[in-house]
Amino acid sequence: MRGPRRVHGVAALALALALGVGACGEKKEEETPAASSDSGAAAEKDCGKVTLNEQAWAGSTANTYIAKAVLEDKLGCEVEVTKIAEIPVFQAMADGKVDAVLEDWQHTDEYAKYIEEAGTVVDGGPLGVEGHIGWFVPKYVIDENPEFATWEGLKGKEDLFKTAESGDQGMFLGGDPGYVQKDKELIKALGLNLKHVTAGAEPAQVARWTQAIKQKKPVLFYWYTPQFYNQQYELAEVKLPERTPDCKDDAKSGGDLEQYKCAYDVTVIEKLFSKKFAEGGSPAYDVLKKMELTNEDQDAVAKAIAGDKEDPEEAGAAWVTENADKVEAWLN
């Protein structure tokens, strides 16, 4: 999230096998374990190369480098990290160019196309992290204007958020254009006098609203949880209309404007795998399928990487060392 990161693969550890291992993974007595003795059953098979895709936000970086540390240290895999955007990565998985995405915010159209229809991508189940998108303001804005706790309180007072870019309207600072969002539609559906302004990718958006906070200015913006910045800044969420069965969260899917007139849903973050990887017999698939993190786990590593500027490899490896019991459960 904070600029280019090192993504060099680590050369595979040598696997000393007296006899080959079949697809069923049956262990032969003559085998020599490929990785450390506490690596569990998964380390009994040849791992080979695994390609993980890192998305454009700090939480995804955290997941990716935790997984990279486990696969390299415990299974002897050669791990490559790619950086393909949220939607194009589905085709990359279908083509076998990416093996795993460890944080997907449930892109329903792509699920229908690649998982349900084509069968080229496999749903790997929940990561354990729950995500939520919403409208946020600095807490001091709510303290000074308690009515802004809900969207109704914004109506008629939008000019508090005016900037040079928004003219006579209040400014709504939108999220990264590649993210799931519906804020232009929501603003229109709610009849708010707000102008949707996009700063660009997430780092540029973060720079805008953090600068406003440093200057104690009011700012209304697209944001989400989990996010390590939420530990550094006191933010408050503006309550949006209750959800209905027809609610939609991604404007790219089209539909009636009224379908976007609701709060964003709480999203169970999913893991996704290419069919080729899922059916290829790699022990890495079994480990990644069992991989689970909490919001707190992710935030801690994301903060170390993006906030404290630690090397992603080192931050991921440190978490693995400090959470040996959790990792062991993925390996057995």
Question: How would you summarize the topology of this molecule?
Answer:
Blueprint: E1 49-53, H1 58-75, E2 78-82, H2 88-94, E3 100-104, H3 108-117, E4 121-138, H4 139-144, E5 170-174, H5 183-190, E6 194-198, H6 202-214, E7 220-225, H7 229-232, E8 235-238, E9 266-274, H8 275-278, H9 283-290, H10 295-307, H11 312-322, H12 324-331
Helix pairs in contact: 1-10, 1-11, 10-11
CATH superfamily of the largest domain: Periplasmic binding protein-like II
Uncertain residue segments: 1-39
- CATH class descriptor name of the largest domain: Alpha Beta
Mean pLDDT, to the nearest integer, reads 88
Largest sheet data: 9 strands, mixed
The whole-angstrom Rg is 22 Å
Percent range for helical residues? Answer: 25-40%
Whole-number tally of structural domains: 2
Could you give the distance between the termini? 33 Å
**What's the overall geometry?**
globular
Structural class by helix and strand composition: alpha/beta
The run of helices and strands is: EHEHEHEHEHEHEHEEHHHHH
| CATH-derived topology of the largest domain | D-Maltodextrin-Binding Protein, domain 2
The CATH level-2 architecture of the largest domain is identified as: 3-Layer(aba) Sandwich
**What's the number of extended β-strand segments?**
9
Oligomer status: single chain
Number of DSSP helical runs? 12
